[in-house]
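Annotated sample (chain length 434).
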Amino acid sequence: MSTDLGGLRPSRVEHLDARYWDPADLDREQRRQLEVCHGCRMCVNLCPAFPQLFEYIDDEADGEVERLTTAHLQHFDALCYECKLCFVVCPYTPPHEWAIDIPRLVLRARAVEARQRGLPLGRRLLGDPDLLGSLGCAAAPVANALAQQPKARELMEQTLGIHRQAFLPRFATQTFASWFAKRPQPRPLGSTGKVALFYSCLVNYYHPEIGMAAVRVLERSGVEVICPPQRCCAMPLLDEGRLDAALGQMRANADHLAAAAAAGYDIVVPEPTCGMMLKKEYPDYLHSAAAETVASRTYDLAEYLMRLHREGQLRTDFAYAPGKIAYHMPCHLKYQAIGRRSVELLKLIPGAEVQVVDRGCSGHDGTWAFKKEFHELSLKVGSKLFAGLRDANANIVATDCSLAALQIEQGTGLRPVHPIEIVWAAYPDASPEG
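Output written by the structure step:
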């Protein structure tokens, strides 16, 4: 079953059970799981949350998890940016009897807090990329210019909590969805496959060139591409604790994508977080046949293209060598446990030398790096990766995650591209992504 992770089976999210929303029950479960983490400490080097937790336990709680205060637990939750790497390395995740799943536990804590206390405006806006994206793209030149103005950034920091020095993605003057709807219809395709592209809000509002390259590469190999109605995958809403709103978006997406799957289309996703959501979070949160269908038919973009290659159906008549590529594998691709498919894909291009820079997380992690209280810490988290990418001295820096790319650009001055852009550019008849 594709929602399994390397043979592990993360448990369902029982948000329909009243105990899920009970603060006392949540507190007991937090302390139960953190007691195991305290005794293990395998995750101490993965993120800022665990070192801070262990410091609290050792220095302020006399080595006793039960003596941690509510403030200690809330700070731990705030420092977690849902990279999921602790789940990947933890030896005690389900089906182990201890059933440790810290990322899911943190999301539960945020949901309980948001229901009890509500959310400030800035966090509500950051959780709604479709609203921000549609407004920003409608006035892209003005919005992008304002994002560069110091006074405007000061105001954003004061009112929305967005750090004044954090790099922000630039709004596209034409969304990917608009480009896809207006482009000339391709010749009849589908001889090698049928794909429903879940293009993501990042591609739609900020990086349509990624979606354009994906469509062109797929169609070049005879794959029919459609774009079913879709909204944001809902990860930003989960991150901010807005579980009810997240479930609504997840159900709508699952229904549209399940209908496409029933019509014979595989679901392909160019952004790792969105693919993770469809594969892992949708079935565990929605408990529906539609979500199970979507999870079983969803592929990361490189994963799907390498499947075509194994079947002898991917066009590999490349004409241009990209040279040395320094590649960062995003955390949410590691969580999908599908291997390094983007690396395999890039290595199909003659003359491509791919160096994997595995120096940890970029530190962006959804909207975490935008926030004024975490931005400087996020750059510290990504510092080892930044140094590794600089030291690689490559022609091109590549990563599958657009937000990791933004963080890498801020930390290094290098501007990464998505692997699919490199693949498309290597074909002899590649055209500009305009």
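Annotation: The two ends are 39 Å apart (CA to CA).
Annotation: Residues 190 and 224 are 4 Å apart (CA to CA).
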